[in-house]
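Posting this for the archive.
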Amino acid sequence: MVRRIRQLGARAIAAALGCVCLVAGAPFARAQVPEDDQYHQPVHATEDQLALAFIAGRYATPITCKKTDGSVLELEDSILMKEAPDAGGGNAVKVTFFGVDVPDLAYCYNLVERRVLDRRGSIFIHFRAHKRADMGVSDFRRALNAGPLTYNAHRGELRVRGIGTEADAAEAREVAFDGGDAKLVVSAIQNGTDGAKLLADYDERTGSSPSPNRRRFMFQFTAKDGSEFTFYGTEAGRPRK
């Protein structure tokens, strides 16, 4: 798992920093020797800046929805993770949930959820880390080697409800992420797991070719009240219409 996360992390960090001396692949963030032998200034970024850049992007997961007329739609649910340095309390990422906006649905499901829920709202997360700009890459490497990455939530809430005419009204609630034990744990998706099969279905639907450079994560969210849910996401571009 760690090796896979490290491979993905190198590409994410390179893109975030715009630095040619970090390249994708193993070992993580391996330095590339410039062909012109010219000196390139070392990257200066703190561990938390790298950790936040590592997950920034849009992630999608496939869902199937049945309409009230009996027809079936193949859709996607998505979340957006965008750096939000003005969120207060230092560096942060804003995680936005958009829900599913399609009329006349009866219910939605996918390979891992018998009934997909509609989640809307935003969560602000940060990464507790050393603040050493000269040691940021080394510090982040150690965090990756330690296993899944844990991001603490300090603000935000989600409005949760069932989807469609067959939804259970008891599922409607608001979930807070303003501190306490609220967090996000990010880990790689292992081959052969339900998460891997789910995202393989996304590739088949979109005609995407499997790529080792595309980020794919298991996002495990824990709210302030201890309730949990998991989002399996693959890095995606603009939403499909």
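The chain has a mean pLDDT of 82. The first strand starts at residue 57 and ends at 67.
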